Records
---
Amino acid sequence: MFDQRGRPLRDLRISVTDRCNFRCNYCMPKEVFDKDYQYLPHKALLSFEEITRISKVFVSQGVQKIRLTGGEPLLRKDVEGLIEQLAALRTPDGEMLDLTLTTNGSLLARKAQSLKAAGLQRVTVSLDGLDDAVFRSMNDVDFPVADVLEGIEAAHAAGLGPIKINMVVKRSTNAHEILPMARHFRGTGMVLRFIEYMDVGHTNGWRMNEVLPSSEVIKLIQAELPLVPLEPSSPGETAQRWAYANAAGQPDPALGEIGVISSVTQAFCGDCNRARLSTEGKLFLCLFASGGHDLRTLIRSGGTDTELASAIGQIWQARSDNYSEVRGALPADKGTVMRRVEMSYIGG
Ligand code: SAM
Ligand code: SF4
Ligand code: SF4
């Protein structure tokens, strides 16, 4: 099944909650996500049975990878119960799914074992720096680095690997943390990925001059720790991969690799095979979409799996989104013109 640009559907990202215990200023700024903010009511959320049913249909339509996200997915009560159900799904060829989760790591030390036991294969942990003061101010709830590192260790010990570490880089805030992060994770078997600060949502006051292009991140690391480019490991991969090099200038497996996700300076819409399911069951075809397609009504009104599959097929086949490729050509006030959904609602 292909969309209008010939892209298959392979990757489903499911947001299991729109709530979070952090207030990262690039995602859920405190001034907007305050005590009066209206989160989704419980009955609006897809139940685990509904998520599993929709996922099963997506898998029948070509999805091979499911990532749970949010908000903070580990805040969803008994998320392990959902993971158990998703881990039991099989592709039409009888293969297991690639089942993963993105988390801020705050509850990981407590939950790593139970997540693994439920069938989760690996995790991606977000961490924007090692300097405690910088990190506390970026998460804006005074959460310490040490607790996230403890969560990462617990995930490693539980076998939730290979672990990826996501660092969003804001030029004036944490660019000086790039090298300390690279030094810290080099040789650990964990893959550190630098993400360009994106203009998602409309609340984070995004400015182009706060984006540090990935090319500069690579240059900065290269100057101290030699890197060599690697081929993508799968089509549609968001990160460009770089290996740490040995003295002969060859990739050194013992030192591992890093990734850069350059959604602002180097669009990768061309092979984007990702669909996103919001907490309340809307299907979004792009991270920057202003609206989604309601699947919850269809399943709550007695729609069959065949009807659901046909709806998903029609939606995907009509898809032509390529926001990152056209960003530069949009009017400067695009954030107000296109009222985009928030990252915390749709997931990363
Ligand atoms: N709460 C979880 C976490 O932080 O890992 C999962 C949800 S979060 C929305 C998913 C990913 O999106 C995180 O790695 C986060 O750093 C990233 N993210 C959020 N806002 C972003 C922005 N404006 N630009 C780039 N990445 C962003
Ligand atoms: Fe929460 Fe993740 Fe957004 Fe930070 S990036 S506010 S941890 S959802
Ligand atoms: Fe995919 Fe949209 Fe991102 Fe392009 S901008 S890579 S279409 S999610």
Note: The first strand starts at residue 11 and ends at 15.
---
Amino acid sequence: MTILTIATTPFAGQRPGTSGLRKKVTEFQQPGYLENFVEAIFLTLDALGEVQGRTLVLGGDGRYFNRAAIQTILRMAAAHGVGRVLVGRGGILSTPAVSCVIRKRAALGGIVLSASHNPGGPDGDFGIKYNIDNGGPAPEKITEAIYAHTQTLTSYRISDADPVDLDQTGSIRLEDMEVEVIDSVSDYAELMAGLFDFDAIRALFQRGFTMRFDGMHAVSGPYAKAIIEGMLGAPAGTVVNAEPLEDFGGHHPDPNPVNAAELIALMDGPNAPDFGAASDGDGDRNMIVGRKLAVSPSDSLAIIAANATVAPGYRGGIKGIARSMPTSQAADRVAAALGVSCFETPTGWKYFGNLLDAGLATLCGEESYGTGSMHIREKDGVWAVLFWLNLIAATGKSVNELVQDHWARFGRNYYSRHDYEAVDAAAANAMMDALRGKLAGLAGQTFGGFRVELADDFTYTDPVDQSVSTRQGVRIIMTDGSRIVLRLSGTGTEGATVRLYLERYEADPARHGLDTQDALAPLIAIAEQVSALKQRAGREEPSVVT
Ligand code: VG1
Ligand code: CO
């Protein structure tokens, strides 16, 4: 075995987005493309003096190119003096499992291979992300340092060793490095068993409670099967589409009512089980579904927060709640009622890390079907589903009853996101620039029954390290708390995706049964009036409405 130094030249566009570097598989397959990015990670870690002899965690969501990328990264890790790499069997680790293993094994960090909810397969997307020693996504100062290295590097180092067998657990040597192939599920399952009342959930299933968990042919299947069917005794067949496939069965592994259509059809029909749930490509998102009711992720965060103490892991109460800026303010009302702080961060889980590390927040959530807690430093799909199971077991109430009760107590935040996907990037940027130019003049203006209280481009100052993130989304906030938010996605791989977020609060229980789009129609019209989004994007309608 020899360690080679291979000459290379930079690729443009290797700046990590909301959650790592995501590109088409074909872009990643260019010679040197993956290697350059991985070299930049090692150069960044080297500059911090951190790599030699240390442990890294490595795994991915099993999508096409996962295995090939793992072999390359292992050979590069060996060439950079890494002491040990813990890799999930078959190259499989969900994003929350990587976070769990980094923390449990006190690793230096980890590399997650995923493009999450983006489609997979040879024509689909691939992605890579570095997580730090707290188990969470690297903060901006590290991702920017990685990007800077990608633009200047001239070579990368790699061992010429043979591929490692990833299909058996156990230890293998690669140069001077140990490769330990670990069970993908066990550390994570053990963590879950410590947070939730597994006895109560087991008893719930024994009483005949029925559920469907749709793994969407992605990575959460093995976790859900082992925990929900294995440890909690749900009948075989409760978890469907449980085997991770390289192309996710040709589907779009995003757990929302549009992409998890099969689950929604079941929950809307005569044979609906008591509870439905789904998770995304890399297992960090979740959708909670009752009969004829898909729970809004913003509501799910608020409901979890309001009921946190039913779960043993949160019995002592929560310290605070953090939500991303576009996420509805339902959680803010719960925080106020509990007398705890509520933090508003930019989109992306990396902004929650400092708040969780400092003990300022216990629960975090995003409108994009992501919820999680201080137990790891990623959002966590199976965790959210287990929380809901624990809540149902503890209260004896259905999903629908829990949601209705919550609205009756706190009011309802009608909420929707309209995505305009694969829009011409120049047109999308021009739309955002024009909108930013108008912001100063908007405050005080009235639109129908709404009066603008504040219009700005969101800037976040991290309360822990004072780092500042600018241009995080345009928000137009009305005097009654209703909001219109517009931002460009940082995870897409084709043109630009414009996201329009809409929120309106309704206190009156008699008006909690409206259709969401109807309830938001006045705000949808104002958003178009102010941004000319449809016209600029050249679209009649959004591509996805959730
Ligand atoms: C989207 C979501 C964001 C989420 C991110 C990663 O980002 O809006 O809330 O954190 O995906 O989720 P963007 O920039 O496209 O809006 V995942 O499940 O891809 O790790
Ligand atoms: Co994901």
Note: The radius of gyration is 23 Å.
